[in-house]
Amino acid sequence: MPSHIMLSYQWDDQALVKKIYDRLKGDGLPVWMDIEGGVTGNINDSMAAGVEEAVVICPFMTPAYQASRSCKKELNYAESREVIIVPVMLTNNWEASEWLGLITAGLLWVDFRNAEKDEEHFEMCLSSLEEEIMFNAGHLLAVEEPQEEVVDQPEPPKPRLKKKPGRGFRHALSKLYIHESGEQIIDPTDDSRNTVELSETAGEHCYWLEIKGNGCKYYRNVVTNRYLGFDPNRNQVHSDVGPSESEEWLMLVDQTDQSSQRAVIIKNKHTGMFLAVQNRHFMGLTSYNEDCRWFLE
């Protein structure tokens, strides 16, 4: 049975990936790296075994990774085996293309572009990676208790990593959460839609399951099982009983953000409008500005 997280990288980035490996392992995640006992005997057999036993593979994306034949073989093999891919971006002002762009298209990459700026920044990037791994595969991984360092005055023990119920969306500027109210929209022409509100506090109604669609994603509330949607005629966010065009979404990394807080842009596929908040109200905007920035929780 697949059991570990495989780190796939080009050798120029070995020092950073080794640091990430050590931290993931220290936090109780089962992680595989070639220089940490992953390769024994024939290298091709060992790398194939690394992929075959992987629940998740994390490609550390750079131009050198994209140019590497070995990295291409690893990731192509992982994709053919339907291993969950959690991409990690290391390079500023660059986008994956060719074979790498094709495999990672539509996937939410984790931002490590400035991870080595300082230790606090690295910790935030690492936390983002752990959260994305747990979101995608927490139910498939055997997570252990975090390893504790022996110190004179020990800090409170770090809790074991757990999978969250779904995606939580917190608006970057207003700090408000997308919340399914469970209240029906008063509209005689449509009795299937409920209102979706902005909440100051997170709760069960603020979590949304992410479901892959045809070139899009659907977000279904974990409590009500209703789908997040947008009506451009009313400029209104709603929830509905079943997915339709109005409930089709695209979610991308907000590459303009430098906070390492998992900043994303949410765009309605059908209308092409960005989901934004202005004056504590939902808005659909035709062009991006800071009102369109969300943090994943």
TrEMBL record:
Residues 5-123 form the TIR domain. InterPro entries: TIR_dom, Toll_tir_struct_dom_sf. One of its GO terms (biological process) is signal transduction. This is TIR domain-containing protein. The lineage of its organism: Eukaryota, Metazoa, Chordata, Craniata, Vertebrata.
